[in-house]
Design brief:
The complex is a heterodimer of chains A (305) and B (284). Chain A is mainly α and 305 residues long. Chain A has one domain. Chain A contains twelve helices and no strands. In chain A, helix 2 packs across helix 6, helix 3 runs antiparallel to helix 8 and helix 7 runs parallel beside helix 12. Chain B is built from ten helices and 13 strands. Chain B is elongated, with a radius of gyration of 23 Å. Chain B has two domains: 213 residues, P-loop containing nucleotide triphosphate hydrolases (Rossmann fold, 3-Layer(aba) Sandwich), CATH 3.40.50; 44 residues. Chain B is an alpha/beta fold. In chain B, strand 9 and strand 10 form a beta hairpin. Classes of the chains: A mainly alpha (305), B alpha/beta (284). At the A-B interface, helix 1 and helix 5 of A face helix 2, strand 6, helix 3, helix 4 and helix 5 of B.
Chain lengths: 305, 284
């Protein structure tokens, strides 16, 4: 360290960024971190492995479908649609899980974890509201997770079409459902990071994810045994964790225009059955996202660091 | 003009634990104030409240006239935490650029280069934090705290990882900041450092300011020790100027004087007395 020959700089004009600009700054820094830590490279390689396996499964399934077709067609069931939709539904489940892992690991230590490591304090003494930092971290995570689930889901649709000649009845709604679903999971993980240590937060969010899956499973059981009570429990849980409802709505859109025995023969998703949902779900999910963000901001504003 | 920092009647309780009990501290523009105290005395809590990282239970903290924690206050301060970390993947330049943008500084590359030169990191602007030594990271921390030309600088143990040359440069830097009217609150366990650079010192213990004043005022005279045939005597209220008179009086009284020692208390003595510890660190 050399002795300063000139006076310390003291004339740089100060004009702090607006809240949105500051949030984008934080988001860009988080994205740069993902890039520098080779997160994207790891994701790309593992996703390539996933899509390869999915392609292999699709190829084999449609190969077997040729044998089934003569039998099922006489019963009025289009085996190609059943196979294609089932595979796409399974892919959506797997992609939601992968997106959840991404969302959780990008946000689980954003507040308490970073504060305990001493990373957060230098940022928070800058003229930026705490909620702005939360917004920036959420945007940074969403900028990775949402394009990821959208791109991989689209890739699985393309593979299904290329190898089996099946394309979903609706494309946009399943993609949007998964995208909004992981955005909600990222918000939940970020909110959890305000009050929980990193490990506890990660466990909590994955348990919430598991609770959503269980709700879907309960719904299927309720439908099979005709239990209204179980059905109500499944419905309330699914709405309390709307990423599950969005996933189920996305599944339903895969075969939105399919009718007849083919529709009856399709059972999508390993845990959650497809459930139609109107525009209310989307509005509710956006309101839910806002409420989670507001609660997280309030808790963060009151927290001593 | 509002002082750089004004702390009035500050209280902070963490549950049943009272971390601060009515602390009053003021740092004027261009004034260097040292904050001393044992571990757990409440120094870091005071600094964190000033930074807006911790909410006070009662009392008022103002940074350049603005309430602590407000955007206006944050605009005026620079902070180096004792236990800080920067993202290990970021380079020195990237880190300073982020802070420049967050604070709204238009200094650009010129300011970054100047700050890195100031702390002796101008030869490694593109080195990642993770590849820097602890001392280098501390220098980068100081540069980061100076981004945007703050009017109040809060430094928590800024030289703990620096070598003697680095410490001297920080002292020089602090003196230059004082010349430019920057108020500095320096939290340090290095009493000699505080004694060398600070205009005033506040000693905190048990969440209260137990002593405050200039280092010279706190390091008052400690008396005169005289060795005679009858043994060693301490004349507690005497100073150096009293030595000729004391010796004359003793000789006149028939005592043989074998030695005289003027005792002066250091800031360390004053500190230990203020916080109720002896030289071994035991409570007195």
């Amino acid at each position: 360290m050399s002795a300063p020959a000139e006076p310390v700089r003291g004339s740089a004009p100060i004009e702090p960024p607006g809240e949105w600009d500051a949030a984008l700054l934080v988001a860009r820094f988080a994205l740069r971190e993902s890039l520098r830590r080779k997160v994207f490279l790891v994701i790309a390689l593992l996703t390539l492995a996933f899509l390869t396996l999915y392609g292999l499964a699709t190829w084999q399934a449609f190969d077997a479908e040729g044998d089934l077709d003569s039998t099922t067609s006489t019963a009025g069931v289009d085996a190609g649609v059943v196979v294609g939709a089932t595979l796409a539904g399974l892919a959506m489940f797997a992609i939601l899980f992968l997106g959840t892992i991404l969302a959780v690991f990008l946000t689980l230590g954003a507040v308490r974890g970073d504060a305990e490591r001493g990373l957060l304090q230098p940022l928070l003494v800058r003229p930026m509201r705490r909620r702005t930092l939360l917004l920036g971290r959420w945007l940074g995570a969403v900028a990775v997770c949402v394009p990821y689930v959208v791109a991989v889901t689209l890739a699985s649709f393309v593979l299904t079409d290329a190898l089996g000649g099946w394309w979903p009845d609706r494309t946009l709604a399943p993609l949007a459902g998964l995208g909004l679903g992981v955005a909600i999971i990222a918000a939940l993980a970020l909110a959890g990071s305000v009050v929980l240590a990193s490990t506890a937060n990660g466990i909590a969010v994955f348990m919430l994810f598991g609770a959503g899956l269980t709700a879907g499973l309960l719904g299927q059981i309720a439908e099979a045994i005709g239990s209204d009570t179980l059905g109500d429990v499944a419905k309330v849980t699914t709405w309390a964790l709307p990423f599950e409802a969005l996933y189920q709505a996305g599944l339903a859109e895969l075969t939105a225009d399919t009718v007849g025995f083919t529709k009856l023969a399709i059972s999508l998703g390993p845990f959650g059955g497809a459930q139609d949902a109107g525009p209310g779900l989307w509005l509710y999910s956006l309101a839910y996202l806002g409420a989670v963000g507001a609660l997280a901001a309030r808790a963060f504003a009151r927290r001593d660091l | 003009m509002a002082p750089a920092l004004s702390v009035t009647g500050l209280h902070k309780a963490y549950g049943a634990v009272q971390a601060l009990r009515g602390v009053d501290v003021e740092v004027g523009a261009g004034e260097l104030v040292g904050l001393l105290g044992p571990n757990g005395a409440g120094k870091s809590t005071l600094v964190k409240i000033t930074c807006g990282l911790v909410r006070p239970s009662a009392g008022e903290v103002r940074v350049c006239g603005a309430p602590a924690g407000s955007a206006e206050a944050h605009r005026s301060l620079g902070y180096l935490a004792e236990l800080f970390r920067f993202p290990d993947w970021a380079t020195a330049t990237e880190l300073l650029e982020l802070h420049q943008r967050l604070v709204g500084s238009r200094g650009g590359a010129g300011e970054r280069g100047e700050l890195l030169e100031l702390v002796g990191l101008d030869h490694v602007p593109t080195r990642a934090v993770g590849a820097m030594s602890k001392g280098m990271q501390q220098r980068l921390g100081i540069a980061q705290a100076l981004v945007g030309a703050p009017r109040l600088l809060l430094l928590d143990e800024p030289t703990s990882a620096l070598d003697p040359a680095g410490r001297r440069t920080v002292r020089t830097l602090l003196e230059r900041l004082r010349e430019r009217g920057v108020g500095v609150l320096l939290n340090s366990h290095l009493l000699s450092e505080v004694e060398l650079v600070c205009d005033r010192v506040a000693i905190i213990d048990g969440g209260e300011v137990v002593a405050a004043g200039t280092p010279a005022a706190l390091s008052h005279a400690g008396g005169v020790e005289v060795e005679t045939a009858a043994g060693t005597r301490l004349i507690a209220d005497a100073a150096r100027d009293d030595v000729p008179r004391i010796v004359r009086e003793l000789v006149a009284a028939g005592d043989d004087v074998y030695g005289v020692r003027v005792l002066t208390s250091t800031l360390e003595d004053a500190y230990l007395a203020a916080v109720g510890r002896d030289e071994q660190g035991n409570a007195t």
